[in-house]
């Protein structure tokens, strides 16, 4: 009888498309008898399918350009997508974790409310759907605003990401990182994948 710790690498190989037929039979038998591995298999398979679906659905050219410009070490246009194709199991697991257990669910389940995310929000002023970084104040790290009007008069030391909202940069504003405006859920997924691959290539 196959052990769970033996089944996991076989699941990854299966999703990568290079599992031997004999192993495939043994894996199938284990998945029938083990609920935990079967659930994991289903989850990884679903996420794998989701990632494979991404390339044909085009992200806007500017967004792709923004993602690519954030990946200085990977010069060729589709290198990072190739990397994901070659390592689906690893990348799928990480993308799955990032997207599903990170900010993604709460951000997109909550479809009327403003969402503000960041490591340092104490100087950020929120009034109605308007989010302001006042002049002379500094937000350390990234600032993410969804479905709101972001007005920056002060400093942001990280990246600024506005999702389904508007951005107003005052002449006194200073953003150290990149400014990204995303207008759809798919754009956000692309952004997260780009961020993840960028992290790996560092
Ligand atoms: Zn098992």
Automatic annotation (TrEMBL):
Segments passing through the bilayer: 89-108
Transcription is among the record's keywords: no
Coiled-coil intervals, chain numbering: none
Putative zinc-finger domain mapped to chain residues: 4-38
Domain of life: Bacteria
Keyword Transmembrane helix: yes
Pfam families referenced in this protein's UniProt entry, alphabetically: zf-HC2 (PF13490)
The entry's keywords: Membrane, Transmembrane, Transmembrane helix
Family, per entry: Belongs to the zinc-associated anti-sigma factor (ZAS) superfamily. Anti-sigma-W factor family.
Protein name: Anti-sigma-W factor RsiW
Organism of provenance: Paenibacillus marchantiophytorum
